[in-house]
Design goal:
The complex is a heterodimer of chains A (265) and B (244). By secondary structure, chain A is an all-alpha fold. Chain A has one domain (13-264). Chain A is 71% helix and 2% strand. Chain A contains twelve helices and one strand, in the order E-H-H-H-H-H-H-H-H-H-H-H-H. Chain A has helices spanning 13-35, 43-59, 70-92, 94-97, 99-104, 111-138, 149-173, 177-191, 206-210, 213-225, 233-257, 261-264, and one strand at residues 2-6. In chain A, helix 6 packs across helix 7 and helix 7 packs parallel to helix 11 (233-257). Chain A is globular, with a radius of gyration of 20 Å. The two termini of chain A are 26 Å apart. Chain B is of the alpha/beta class and 244 residues long. Chain B has a single domain (3-242), classed as P-loop containing nucleotide triphosphate hydrolases (Rossmann fold, 3-Layer(aba) Sandwich). In chain B, strands 5-6-7-3-8-9 form a six-stranded mixed β-sheet, with helices on both faces. Chain B is globular, with a radius of gyration of 20 Å. The chains are: A mainly alpha (265), B alpha/beta (244). At the A-B interface, strand 1, helix 1, helix 5 and helix 12 of A face strand 1, helix 1, strand 4 and helix 3 of B. Strand 1 (2-6) of chain A pairs parallel with strand 4 of chain B, so a sheet runs across the interface.
């Protein structure tokens, strides 16, 4: 039988507060590290989607005349895609990167992916502001419906966190999971209707895109950002289902693997 | 209740990779469906009681489970069996420079180190930072530089000072006392004695029996995961010396 107890007779509240302080500091550290010593700082993160956008506009806008307001269509998908790929890439190496801390401090291991997602979320949200302005000039309707973005982003973040936690946990044991993920990522990009519309996918291949979880998230994002409406209940349901499955899987995999972290890091 | 740490019949194991599977590639090529991990026991049935104000030196050859013991007490590793009861806040100094980011400045690193060791407090922040930089003997200019420009000694001083300036309840040190130049080492030892006089409990891993005798009253000797001696630090040092 194994039993472990940590009795802290003095103010157990302090413990929660300490955890909170650590989370804030690690998020701050991540953001500092990301932007501090680059000339363009924060603007680097805007450059990435911007470059893609330019390429798509130059090359593909003529190819898909059926899509109304193509620039807005691309950009709305693109910013969310970049959030997804950046965050999952970060999370896939989160435990390896923090091996030193994991071995030296009694801090719950989940804090590291939480702080990494937190800092990615902050840079995503900061980036969203200039892009919303650009989108406005592209014809985005400013209405209260945009507030639907908040639950959409929360749901999307939970999904990203789950995927990242699975990748990060497995990566501790099988070190090429991260490499594999960065190989799969571009494939996933082309399998997601970001630069093209789902309608143009040949009927017999449609199922492939449908099995891509990102397709469903892109639908609800576009409902709000591109169509200026509330997200459709059908896709919201799908996204909720996908997120719950991913979260349960992440929970199980993390629980199964976490005790081996110290011996394998 | 006059103990601060109590371990009863604690055994700890590591998961060891049985087949050398370290990647998905290996996994597919070797097509292993049996669990690739094997438990390797590091600590065997350890009993330990530490009272408030004790200073315990832990001696033993490399790879015999000293660090694992401290990590178990700190709650970083969970034991397979047995009871771990810790009743105070722990300030761990298990590896120097954990959490130091070379790209960030000394000040920023100091703040992060204080937060990680539980010594960060908004009301006393300015005072703490001053104390730490005083102790580390780093000037304001140096603290504004990114840590990658620091020498090894300066880095160690920065990390060490962030823990040593506070008055910890339970301090854990894993072989990292001898940092910096002679003067700084002396200062560290003096501060350590001061911390102990103020009633802190100390768990101290070292490979130097002299250091253990100097700092600790009590000594434990561990060999191959078994506690072979527990008593005065002088005798523990003898037992340790006879192992080789």
């Amino acid at each position: 039988m194994f039993k472990i107890c940590f009795n802290l007779p003095k103010k157990p509240v302090m413990h929660a507060k300490r955890r909170y302080i650590i989370i804030l500091f690690l998020i701050y550290k991540n953001l500092q590290l990301k932007y501090k010593h680059s000339v363009l700082g924060f603007f680097w993160s805007l450059l990435h989607p911007f470059l893609y956008l330019l390429i798509f506009l130059m090359i593909f806008s003529a190819a898909f005349p059926a899509i109304q307001n193509y620039p807005l269509y691309v950009l709305s998908g693109l910013v969310f895609w970049i959030y997804f790929t950046n965050a999952t890439m970060q999370l896939s190496i989160v435990f390896i990167k923090n091996a030193h801390l994991i071995k030296s401090f009694n801090i719950p291991n989940t804090i590291y992916p939480i702080t990494d997602l937190g800092s990615e979320l902050v840079s995503f949200l900061l980036g969203l502001i200039p892009f919303m302005i650009i989108m406005y000039f592209m014809g985005l309707k400013m209405s209260l419906n945009l507030l639907y973005l908040i639950p959409v982003i929360i749901l999307f973040s939970v999904f990203i966190f789950s995927v990242g936690l699975i990748l990060g946990s497995l990566n501790v044991f099988l070190r090429d999971v991260g490499i594999l993920w960065s190989t799969i990522n571009p494939a996933l990009f082309y399998l997601s209707p970001i630069a093209y519309s789902f309608k143009i996918v040949p009927e017999r291949f449609k199922f492939i895109v449908k099995y891509n979880p990102l397709y469903h998230f892109l639908e609800i994002v576009r409902n709000v950002l591109y169509e200026g409406q509330a997200p459709s209940a059908h896709y919201v349901g799908r996204c909720l289902m996908i997120t719950s499955v991913a979260a349960v899987m992440a929970f199980i995999i993390y629980r199964k693997t976490r005790n081996g972290f110290i011996s394998n890091l | 209740m006059d103990y601060v740490i109590k371990l009863k019949d604690v055994s700890v194991s590591y998961l060891q990779n049985r087949k050398g599977l370290h990647s998905v590639k290996d996994f597919v090529l070797k097509a292993s469906f049996i669990s690739p991990f094997q438990k390797h026991r590091v600590l065997h049935h350890i009993d330990l009681e530490v009272k408030r104000g004790d200073s315990v030196g832990i001696l033993g050859p490399n790879g015999t489970g000293k660090s694992t013991l401290l990590r178990t007490i700190a709650g970083i590793i969970k034991p397979d069996e047995g009871l771990v009861d810790v009743r105070v806040q722990i300030s761990p100094l298990l590896s120097l420079g954990a959490g130091i980011e070379l790209e960030l400045s000394g000040y920023e690193n100091m703040k992060i180190a204080l937060a990680l060791t539980g010594n960060y407090n908004k009301s006393t922040r300015a005072e703490m930072i001053e104390k730490v930089s005083d102790f580390a003997e780093l000037t304001k200019e140096q603290l504004k530089m990114p840590a990658k420009m620091y020498s090894t000694g300066m880095l160690a001083r920065l990390a060490f000072s962030s823990v040593m300036t506070a008055q910890p309840e339970l301090l854990m040190i894993d072989e990292v006392l001898a940092v910096g130049d002679r003067g700084f080492q002396k200062k560290c030892k003096n501060r350590l004695h001061e911390i102990l006089e103020n009633g802190a409990t100390l768990l101290f891993i070292s490979h130097s029996p002299e250091e253990v005798k100097d700092i600790c009253k009590r000594g434990i000797c561990i060999n191959e995961g078994i506690k072979i001696y527990d008593g005065s630090s002088k005798k523990a040092a003898d037992v340790y010396s006879k192992l080789f």
